[in-house]
Specification:
By secondary structure, the protein is an alpha/beta fold. The protein has nine helices and five strands. It has a single domain, classed as Ribonuclease H-like superfamily/Ribonuclease H (Nucleotidyltransferase, domain 5, 2-Layer Sandwich). α2 crosses α7 and α4 packs across α5.
């Protein structure tokens, strides 16, 4: 039996998420008998690890898992969902998570749920699954509670960090991309009126500087 899982590589809600850069969603599939190996190498929630440690674990995780998959959700996709009458950020994430599950095709998927209503989120996600027999567990703080989800969070974080570095080479240093970062705010003050693809234009923080 294989355990599959998915993990958001980004903060879960609009006010807390970065105003600059993509959302990265990742999942792994692993044989149940190899899960303990993740514990042995020190896998945990990516937010609790240094950048150097995440990058080292990323290499080790790829040796242990059967396969992994990640999706990069660009700012324009996020804006489109938030401006839609039929979608929102949680629904967009559910659709993307379902795509990863469909690719990995696990018997069981453990998800770090971005929605307050885990039951509703799970039912919406299941609408997009090809294999209706996949056992879905949508839980809060799953990246802290399950080492398999922690492994996926490391993959998502490392991939997103690489994407952010690419953007900085093209657009300049905008800091972390989070509204709490003074460097990010300074960048927004200078560039918000430009039509840059890196901005999440539906974010209230962006709109404040755009007007």
């Amino acid at each position: 039996m294989y355990w599959g899982l998915t993990r958001l590589g980004d903060s879960k809600k609009n006010p807390k998420g970065p105003v600059i850069g993509p959302l990265v969603i990742a999942g792994i599939i692993i044989e149940e008998k190899r899960i303990e190996e993740l514990n042995r190498i020190g896998v945990r929630d990516s937010k609790l690890l240094s950048k150097k440690r995440r990058e080292k674990l990323f290499v080790e995780i790829k040796k242990i898992v059967k396969d992994y998959k990640f999706l990069i959700v660009e700012p324009y996709e996020i804006d489109k969902a938030l401006n839609s009458l039929n979608l929102n950020l949680n629904k967009l994430e559910a659709i993307k998570l379902a795509q990863i599950i469909n690719y990995l095709n696990p018997d069981k998927a453990i998800i770090d749920c971005p929605s307050a209503n885990t039951h509703s989120f799970k039912n919406y996600l299941k609408m997009f699954l090809k294999n209706k027999d996949t056992e879905i567990h949508a839980l809060h703080d799953a990246d802290k509670r399950f080492v398999v989800v922690g492994a996926a969070s490391i993959i998502a974080k490392v991939i997103r960090d690489k994407e952010i570095e690419k953007l900085k080479k093209e657009y300049g240093d905008f800091g972390s991309g989070y509204p709490s970062d003074p460097k990010t705010i300074d960048f927004l003050e200078k560039h918000a009126k430009k039509d840059l693809r890196i901005f999440r234009k539906s974010w209230s923080t962006f709109k404040r500087f755009k007007t």
